[in-house]
Amino acid sequence: MAHQHSTTLVRLLMVLVLTCTLIPSSALADTSNGAPETQTAPSAEAQPSSASPSTNSTTVGDTIRVGFVNQPGSFSVDEDGNYAGYEYDYLIQLAQYTGWNYEFIEATGDSENARILKSLDMLENEEVDLLGTMNYNSKLAEVYEYPRNSYGYFHPSLFAADNTTDITKTNLYTLEELTVAIKRTSVTYRTVLENFCTKNNIPLTLQEYDSFDEMTAAVNEGRADALLDLDINLHTGFHIVATLQKHPIFFAAKKGRTDITSAIDGAIERLNTGNPLLQSKLYQTYYGVGEEDLSLTPSELAYAADQKPLRVGVVADKAPIQSFDEKTGVLTGVTKNVLDYITSDSGLRFEIVPLKHDKDFAQELHDQNIDLVAGVDNNYTAALEWGLSLSAPYVTSNTLIVFNKNTDPSDLSGHTLAVPHDQVTAASSNSPGPVEVYDSLSDCFKAVDSGRADYVYASTYTAPYYINYGSYTNLNFLPVSISTSQACFGVVAPIEPDLLLILNKSIRSIPESTLNSMIYEASLPSEEERFSQIVKTHLKEIFIACVALLLIVITLLALYLRTRSKAARNARDENNRHREIYRISNEQFFEYTPKTDTLLLSVPEKQHFAHLHRSSSKVSSNYSPYHTYEHISTQHYEFLPIELVEAITAPKNPVADVCCSSEDGRKYWIRISSSILTDDGGKPLSIIGKMTDINEEILEKTHLSERAKHDGLTGLLNRSTFEEEVKHVIAKGKTGAFLIIDVDHFKNVNDIHGHMVGDAALRSMADLLRNSFHSSDLVGRFGGDEFSVYILSPIDRKTLEDRCRALVSKGVSYREKDGTEYHATLSMGVFLISRPVDDYDYLYALADKALYEAKRNGRNQFVIHEQ
Predict the structure, then answer these.
(1) pLDDT tops 50 at residue 48
(2) How far apart are CA 755 and CA 749, in angstroms?
(3) Is the Cβ–Cβ distance between 673 and 654 less than 8 Å?
(4) Which of 292, 440, 515, 521 is least surrounded, with the fewest CB atoms within 10 Å of its CB?
(5) Mean per-residue pLDDT for 787-797?
């Protein structure tokens, strides 16, 4: 009974922790940098001693039952049973390393508290094996089994109103009093805020409210300076002025199921190595924030240069994505162009190996010693079956259903689906009727055209290519709504994380215009191919024409007229299809005619640019997929920003990023990609192009620029930024002090305890310096164990000696993995600046000279030089 009572209290504590947060409990993630800073739970030595070893074990192919609370953004399921969310996508990525299958079980209830309690009951009663979105503390660790590694995190933050400058990121620390509105039940984050204010000497007054609406009203009416909420909740009319303590989230299993948590730990560590941008990407997708640095580091470039040519397996007959020239055997298509780009970007080299892709594809990869497989569908189930880890997709297209003209595409029950070998895994589970497997995609088209099969799926690039240049007479095709296909590279196990990271970065760095050019060039057959196709199609006519010269002339003329008429009809039909595609596209397409000063602007089904389509007597629609704007350069439309009109009607560059102002005064960024069509004399006929919303991209680049100024390990200023800031200060003639600090014998820390402990010691050193100097002073890390401080305000020698003596007496403390604490001494070189000095190198040299003297005198001391 005592144990049951303890379990109930822990469960209630869990609910309290989750439901008293400032947002729903499931929305827990963070993007403080491009790579995941995975938090870890306490080590095994810190876990309760009562945890017994697991008697279960998990292996590749096992089905793991995952419990979840339906929560948009984190883990949700729609009416059709489709799952989505940060946690769901992360589990799918983990499965590439664990080999698990999943059964998802929803916790139901009348309220959020009831659903959370239900999910915990399901875990304790072994109705599920795993739960996500779990906080960690010692009490919870007595009931649940945790992995060491978290899979996301978030920060409590202070939000101020946009319409006030009374509180900013800089003056926050100098306020005489800070009044903060908080939710009455936010006990955990109250403590975090109080600790933050105590540490920074900020007088704090709290105002408690029962709802968020009351909190925002208090700030807007001036009764409070700021409100406390989480950084992933971006509120209209508010901005963040301070970010507080990081909070990680974990998966959890039933107590004793260390087989599950150990497998998760291994998978997370490998995932963070092979795909370090995953958390940022998922956070951007589901919470609207994220960033990516796609430039290759020197170590990555060196890794690529040291690699032997990678053997790339290519399954042909996927034109225009990838195919082999019938005469030369050379690889052609988008895949070839992407591989060439990766080579120029990273230095990786490739050797092309044709593959048959028979039934035992995994064995073929092994026999051919393949490193990469090109053109793999973005299907993790099939990739897992073949032992592949998927790269970022390099081609994304909509899916078409190609069907025999005697087949009704609205009812496919009982109809035969034709699939090539590489798509049989996905097709077998989704087809409503029988499935016939063929050697290649062209064989599938032939089977459907002849009636041996009823339909086949293909991309919007592949299907038109084969249909337009093949001899098929019984084929029709239609788009499949909301269905897309993606081509990736598959890295053959065992995976090299550095290789996968380089591939992902290079693929994602391909400019959109370059990728579009690759696809366009690959989609155009050569003159020789077109002539060959005509010959194959009209062999009988050509043979008859060879018998009589007159018949040749008549036949060729008839064929020419027939082909031209067919091409005109195809062009008209293709234009109608394109107009429909433009209408449902998420981008805006436009055409501007200078002669009539008229703008045609496409209307997407999803109104991402709804502010551009408000009613006006000057705008004509007539149920067209376009809106027509007349006299666009002279007639002002309130809902069309002037900046946008100028970029469309008089483009200065093919691609331009335009900052526009909406009617409510907000700024947003749009990218205009345009091309000018001219007549034979070079006179502009029209300007065609598209508009893309890049507001989040611009915000991400701005944030990335700020992050580049700090050291990745300690968060202090990096060397170049520190030097730049000091030069800026001394140029104003300010006095103070320049300090250089070294950790004595730091190399021994790394050699004896390992680099992880060494990194922990460096972070402890950074914390020591932050706490020892004023927040306005400049604190940086030059590299290794060398740190620097520039005291901005004038200081006398005695005060400086007292502060240096206190710092040296403290030293830096760090802990071994088993909890044993160690201590390292410090050596300091200081130059006291009593008169203005405008030479940074001079200051650095004198401080470094003092440091050398401190080390020569036995270390664990400081030496001060002055003017």
Answers:
(1) no
(2) 8
(3) yes
(4) 521
(5) 93
pLDDT(350) > 80 = yes
Q: Could you tell me which of 732, 762, 708, 740 has the C-alpha nearest to residue 827?
A: 740
Do residues 29 and 153 make contact, with C-beta atoms less than 8 angstroms apart?
A: yes
Query: In which element (H, E) is residue 707 found?
Result: helix 695-707
What DSSP string describes 252-281?
A: EEETT-HHHHHHHHHHHHHHHHH-TTHHHH
CA-closest candidate to residue 71, choices 128, 28, 123, 36: 28
CA–CA dist 310, 296 (Å, integer): 19
d(CA 609, CA 581): 16
CA–CA distance, 562 with 559 (Å, rounded to integer): 5
The predicted pLDDT at position 615 comes to 39
Closest listed residue to residue 711, CA positions, set 719, 699, 701: 719
In the structure, what pLDDT confidence band is assigned to residue 49 with cuts at 50, 70 and 90? very low
**Cα dihedral sign for 36, 41, 44, 45?**
positive
The reported pLDDT for the residue numbered 33 is 33
How far apart CA 69 and CA 440 sit, in angstroms, is: 43
Cα(322)–Cα(487) distance, integer angstroms: 10
Query: Which pLDDT does position 18 carry in this prediction?
Result: 44
Of the chain, the end-to-end C-alpha distance in Å amounts to: 75
pTM for the whole structure: 0.37
- At residue 171, φ and ψ (nearest 5 deg) are -85, -5
Question: Secondary structure of the chain: what % helix, strand, coil (to 5)?
Answer: 40, 25, 35
DSSP string of 591-614, one letter each residue: EEETTTTEEEEE--SS-TTGGG--
d(CA 465, CA 318): 10
Segment 740-770, tens digit of pLDDT: 999 999 988 888 888 888 899 999 999 999 9
Phi/psi at 364 (5° precision): -65, -40
AA letter at 357: H
Whole-angstrom distance, CA of residue 100 vs CA of residue 745: 47
Can you tell me the distance from the alpha carbon of 490 to that of 389, in angstroms, rounded to the nearest whole number?
Answer: 5
pLDDT tens for each residue of 434-451: 999 888 888 899 999 999
SS3 letters for 378-417?
Answer: CCHHHHHHHCEEECCCCEEEEEEEEEECCCCCCCCCCCCE
- The DSSP line for 88-121 is HHHHHHHHHHH--EEEEEE---SSHHHHHHHHHH
Cβ–Cβ < 8 Å for 231, 29? no
Residue 502: how many other CB atoms lie within 10 Å: 24
Give the mean model confidence (pLDDT) for residues 349-353: 95
Q: Which of 56-65, 215-224, 380-389, 629-638 shows the highest mean pLDDT? A: 215-224
The Cα 120–Cα 104 span in angstroms is 15
What is d(CA 483, CA 260) in angstroms, rounded to the nearest whole number? 34
For residues 592-598, give the mean pLDDT: 87
* Mean pLDDT, the chain, integer: 81
Residue matched to tokens 């073929």: 364
Q: How far is it, in rounded angstroms, from Cα 65 to Cα 101?
A: 9
Q: Which residues 6+ apart lie within 8 Å of 175 measured at CB?
A: 167, 202, 203, 225
Model confidence at 218: pLDDT above 80: yes
The count of other CB atoms within 10 Å of the CB of residue 730 is 21
Burial class (CB in 10 A: 0-12, 13-18, 19+), 594: middle
Bigger pLDDT: 662 vs 334: 334
Asked whether 94 and 268 are in contact (CB, 8 A), the reply is yes
d(CA 622, CA 21): 51
CB of 431 closer than 8 Å to CB of 439: no
Q: What is the Cα–Cα distance from 395 to 405, expressed in whole angstroms? A: 29
The CA distance from 611 to 691, in Å, is: 14
| 112 within 8 A of 118, measured Cβ to Cβ | no
What is the per-residue pLDDT across 133-156, written as a single tens digit (0 to 9) for each?
887 777 888 899 999 888 877 778
3-class secondary structure, 451: coil
